[in-house]
Amino acid sequence: MDIRNVSVIGAGTMGNGIAHVFAQYGFNVVLSDLKREYLDHALSTIQTNFDRQIKKGSLREDQKKQALDRIRTTTDFAESIRAADLVIEAVVEVAEVKKKIFADLDRLCSPSTIIATNTSSISITELAAVTSRAEKCIGMHFMNPVPMMKLIEVIRGFRTSDETCVLIMELSKKLEKIPVEVKDYPGFISNRILIPMINEAIYCVMEGIASPESVDTVMKLGMNHPLGPLALADLIGLDVCLSIMEVLHQGLGDDKYRPCPLLRKMVAAGYIGRKSGKGFYTYAAQS
């Protein structure tokens, strides 16, 4: 199967980054979301990120124009997937929302269409189970920011076929990414390791062991991390971190994955990081 037409469902941070990369590497992309304002903001972000690449010398102006010409946006869900060889769902990290989208995609897409999800922790097997094409369902977990980060976790559900997995591994390489095949367990690899580390860093703050600045400084200077865990939590979104911890806690049944009470409190207060302007640090208003 030759994948040329890609549909991305959800125009947020991950969705617009995924659309950016596919368009840059010659694929036709339809980006969809519920509101036109979300799509307009996504296109603005994509153009800004292309401009950054031009400034760094990794992209030419004519290549930017060609890539932008390959991206079409729409609020019409059914229309957005009509010609898709591959659909990548990149909406909010809530299992029931994703299941509804997977069921709709299964009903509306061509029988040959592969359905992928950018989920960072939710079971591929559970999402695939609401479709009649579980062998064609797979996880493509891109890293943020998508245009810069090389890794893609390729997650096989219980019934994902070898053919689908090989196709997505090879497709990832065409995007100049490095795919890693992962089995379907809570958090996969990246977030099973990363998010509990962030959760423990939050415990250090809650218990008064150190300030957020001190925790991050220790991890940057002592462990050579480019970004401290609490600054990284703000970048990811504390709401997303909490959601992933809850998936780990429920899926693995071990209290070592219990979300820190301070994390719950901050999310409840609306302090969810960069996107809200305040998390462990304070940020300028987002445009």
Describe this entry's structure for a reader.
It is a single chain. The protein has 287 residues and is of the alpha/beta class. It folds into 2 domains: 5-183, 3-Layer(aba) Sandwich (Rossmann fold), CATH 3.40.50.720; 191-275, N-(1-d-carboxylethyl)-l-norvaline Dehydrogenase, domain 2 (Orthogonal Bundle). Helix content is 48%, strand content 14%. The chain is built from 12 helices and 8 strands. It has helices at residues 13-24, 36-56, 61-69, 77-80, 95-108, 124-128, 162-174, 190-206, 212-223, 229-236, 238-252, 261-268; strands at residues 5-9, 28-32, 71-74, 86-89, 114-117, 137-142, 151-156, 178-183. An 8-stranded mixed beta sheet has the order 3-2-1-4-5-6-7-8, sandwiched between helices. Helix 5 (95-108) links the parallel strand 4 (86-89) and strand 5. Helix 1 crosses helix 2 and helix 8 (190-206) crosses helix 11. The longest helix is centred in the N-terminal third of the chain and has 21 residues, at 36-56.
Quick structural summary:
By secondary structure, the chain is α/β, with parallel strands linked by helices.
Low-pLDDT windows of residues: none
The global form is globular
Order the strands across the largest sheet as they lie in space: 3-2-1-4-5-6-7-8
Biggest sheet character: 8 strands, mixed
Which percent bin holds the helix content? 40-55%
Rg, alpha carbons: 19 Å
> How would you classify the helix and strand content by structural class?
alpha/beta
Tally of DSSP helical segments: 12
By CATH reckoning, the class of the largest domain would read Alpha Beta
Q: What is the CATH topology of the largest domain?
A: Rossmann fold
What's the architecture of the largest domain in CATH terms? 3-Layer(aba) Sandwich
Question: Whole-Å distance between the termini?
Answer: 40 Å
Instruction: Specify the CATH homologous superfamily of the largest domain.
Output: NAD(P)-binding Rossmann-like Domain
Give, in order, the helices and strands: EHEHHEHEHEHEEHEHHHHH
Overall tally of structural domains: 2
Portion of residues in beta strands equals 5-15%
**β-strand number:** 8
Mean pLDDT across all amino acids: 96
